[in-house]
């Protein structure tokens, strides 16, 4: 990912190659910070309110003192004002804790083009294997220190999980709880169809990240003549669903076309969902 524009809180737009963080910033040393990634549409960050709300929630759980929401909103908008409207872009809003003892976080917003790796799965779908996350579905609900539902900068496990997918010859993975439930993917939320309902995994019961894209879809499922709900599901039950998708802000929608080597039939809902989401 190469930035094409960069805005820094308190400084406005700067050259995207500007060095920003101190070598002792805890965001760099320990992944101690939070971020949000958004799709930029018509020069504006899509679902900005929802992303700012999730960032505020992550900050509370991490005991990070974020600047006022208006300042983050302005930072995001200033960065987007420098995005090339002729190409599809992403916006990444980052807040690090700063050096030990710092009383303000370091915040910046970077723009980068959407890569082909995000665009292709929207129409081609993805092959997925399940892998264990090692704890039970309820473990994070009882353990705030596990930071369930927080979008922290500590994404090493998420990235390692995606590298594992590639090493196994598939496009992505779905994390399983130790008690056999499907949770989420390392950078996306699971949604599936069961009868006339679109379903996703409950956030509070599992500590998964509350996905803004999945929420946006489920809140509008009536436009597809479908109801919406939250349920726990096993991998075996998922292979019997009449459609399963990974949803996220930039890739948008990726239909799961195979799960643990079992081919899943293409769903006629995929195109309808993609159009509802505007991808
Ligand atoms: N789950 C995880 C772990 C994620 O990292 C992401 C996005 O980055 C998602 C789900 C999907 O969230 P959103 O739809 O808000 O992009």
Q: How would you explain this protein's 3D organization?
A:
The chain has 279 residues and is α+β, with helices and mostly antiparallel strands. It has 2 domains: 5-114, D-amino Acid Aminotransferase, Chain A, domain 1, CATH 3.30.470.10; 119-277, Alpha-Beta Barrel (D-amino Acid Aminotransferase, Chain A, domain 2). A hairpin with a 2-residue loop joins strand 13 (252-259) and strand 14. The radius of gyration is 19 Å and the shape is globular. The longest helix is centred in the N-terminal third of the chain and has 15 residues, at 48-62. It has 8 helices and 14 strands. Helices cover 27% and strands 27% of the residues. The strands form 2 sheets. Strands 7, 8, 9, 10, 11, 12, 13 and 14 form an 8-stranded mixed β-sheet that branches. Strands 2-1-6-5-3-4 form a 6-stranded antiparallel β-sheet. Helix 2 (48-62) crosses helix 3. The site of pyridoxal-5'-phosphate has 14 residues, from helix 6 and strand 12.
Topology:
Elements lengths: L4 E4 L3 E3 L11 H5 L2 E9 L2 E2 L2 H15 L6 H13 L7 E8 L9 E8 L2 H9 L1 E7 L23 H12 L4 E5 L12 E6 L2 E4 L11 H8 L7 E4 L4 H5 L4 E5 L3 E8 L2 E2 L5 H9 L2
Parallel strand pairs: 7-8, 7-13, 10-11
Antiparallel strand pairs: 1-2, 1-6, 3-4, 3-5, 5-6, 9-10, 9-12, 12-13, 13-14
Helix pairs in contact: 2-3
The chain binds pyridoxal-5'-phosphate.
The site of pyridoxal-5'-phosphate has 14 residues, from helix 6 and strand 12.
CATH level-four homologous superfamily name of the largest domain: D-amino Acid Aminotransferase, subunit A, domain 2
Q: What share of the residues does DSSP label as strand, in percent?
A: 25-35%
User: Percent helix among the residues?
Assistant: 25-40%
For the secondary structure, the number of strands is: 14
By helix and strand content, what is the structural category? Answer: alpha+beta
> At the first level of CATH, what is the class of the largest domain?
Alpha Beta
CATH topology of the largest domain: D-amino Acid Aminotransferase, Chain A, domain 2
How many independent structural domains? 2
**Distance between the amino and carboxyl termini:** 20 Å
Apparent shape: globular
Bound molecules: pyridoxal-5'-phosphate
């Amino acid at each position: 990912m190469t930035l094409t524009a960069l805005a820094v809180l308190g400084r406005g737009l700067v050259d995207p190659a500007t060095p920003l963080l101190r070598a002792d910033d805890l965001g760099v040393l320990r992944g101690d910070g939070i971020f949000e990634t958004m799709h930029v549409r018509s020069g504006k960050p899509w679902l900005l309110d929802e992303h700012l709300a999730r960032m505020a929630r992550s900050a509370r759980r991490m005991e990070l003192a974020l600047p006022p929401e208006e300042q983050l909103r302005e930072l995001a908008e200033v960065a987007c004002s420098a995005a090339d409207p002729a190409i599809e872009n992403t916006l990444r809003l980052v807040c690090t804790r700063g050096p030990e003892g710092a009383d303000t976080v370091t915040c910046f917003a970077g723009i980068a083009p959407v890569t082909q790796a995000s665009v292709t799965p929207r129409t081609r779908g993805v092959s997925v294997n399940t892998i264990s996350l090692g704890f039970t579905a309820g473990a994070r609900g009882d353990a705030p220190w596990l930071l369930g539902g927080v979008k922290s900068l500590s994404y090493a496990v998420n990235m390692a999980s995606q590298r594992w997918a590639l090493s196994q010859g598939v496009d992505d993975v779905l994390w399983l709880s130790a008690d056999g439930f499907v949770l989420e993917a390392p950078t996306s939320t699971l949604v599936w169809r069961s009868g006339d309902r679109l379903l996703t995994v409950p956030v509070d019961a599992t500590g998964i990240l509350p996905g803004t894209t999945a929420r946006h879809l489920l809140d509008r499922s009536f436009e597809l003549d479908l109801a919406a709900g939250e349920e726990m599901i096993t991998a075996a039950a998922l292979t019997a669903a009449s459609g399963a998708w990974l949803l996220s802000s930039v890739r948008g929608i990726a239909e799961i076309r195979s799960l643990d080597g079992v081919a899943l039939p293409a769903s006629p809902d995929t195109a309808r969902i993609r159009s509802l989401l505007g991808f």
